[in-house]
Design brief:
Length: 287
């Protein structure tokens, strides 16, 4: 998980530690530990990430079909786990919720589908091995699967230093957060990048932001038509920051509801900032 920030890694660590505790616990404690597992799944940022990546599945129907396969022999039941990872995780989490809520009995479930003998602890460990471990593995894989556009990914971390330590730190923090697949982190990344944009606009002439932006645009293009395009884009992006819930959160601002909307805005602003900083450095090197 090289591209996820510490917040999501901590969420995964909470799940891992709870599963480890579940495996070592006596059968009598298994229900409370599954409730703890569900609690961590429902905490942010894991809750937001899973809500946007997992499909809706009818657990009751799936479980009823599984129960119909149970015969007279212990361990004879068959679980039809979906091939699709996200659908499989959705059912595994639903099963954990059902056991934690006592609507499905853990021991009966293991006896029907994974019977390993009369030892209660062995049956708890069997559930961990067959359900919880694969679920954690699949969630880890899911967090690594959100693609970042290759061009943007390659550009990240390669912006010319601005000479302003706070600006450079804001950009670096925004890039780190954007690589995290959690929706909340991507929202925070976009907010950080807009903070960096506001600081970048005063980089050349701190006391006059309009003239400062004009000089940055001059660096970026000496051709009037393209410069006018960049000027319009700079104004549009500033307006977006002011009118949406990015830099301001008053009730008259417009909310963004989808992670993909933050992805789009991040790409758009990052591209402009990259162009301005790159050409600023090149112009200074030519002096």
């Amino acid at each position: 998980m090289n591209d996820t920030n510490s917040i999501l890694r901590f969420s995964l660590r909470d799940l891992e530690e709870t599963i480890s505790d579940f495996r070592q616990a006596p059968y009598q404690s298994s229900g409370s530990l599954l409730a703890r597992l569900v609690h961590h799944i429902d905490e942010e940022p894991m809750a937001g990430f899973l809500s946007t990546t997992l499909p809706s599945r009818n657990f009751d129907e799936w479980f009823a079909n599984a129960q119909r396969t149970v015969g007279s022999m212990v361990g004879s039941g068959s679980l039809d786990w979906p091939v699709d990872r996200a659908q499989r995780i959705a059912l595994q989490i639903a099963l954990c919720r059902a056991i934690a809520a006592s609507t499905v009995d853990l021991l009966t479930f293991v006896l029907h589908f994974y019977y390993t003998g009369n030892n209660l602890s062995a049956n708890v460990n069997s559930f961990a091995s067959h359900v919880l471990d694969p679920m954690l593995r699949d969630i880890r894989h899911l967090t690594e699967s959100r693609p970042v556009a290759p061009v943007l990914f390659e550009a990240m971390g390669k912006l010319p230093a601005s000479g302003d330590a706070l600006l450079d730190a804001l950009i670096a923090d925004a890039c780190t957060k954007f690589k995290d697949p959690a929706p909340k982190a991507r929202q925070e990344a976009t907010e950080k990048l807009w903070d960096a944009w506001e600081r970048l606009k005063s980089l050349e002439i701190s006391e006059d932001k309009r003239l400062s932006v004009g000089r940055l645009l001059d660096y970026a293009s000496s051709e009037s038509t393209f410069r006018a395009l960049l000027q319009g884009e700079a104004k549009a992006l500033s307006d977006i920051g002011n009118n949406f819930h990015i830099r301001h959160f008053e009730t008259n601002r417009v909310s963004l509801s989808q992670p993909e909307q933050f992805d789009y805005l991040f790409h758009r602003l990052y591209a402009l900032m990259h162009l301005l900083l790159f050409n600023r450095q090149r112009s200074r090197n030519d002096i």
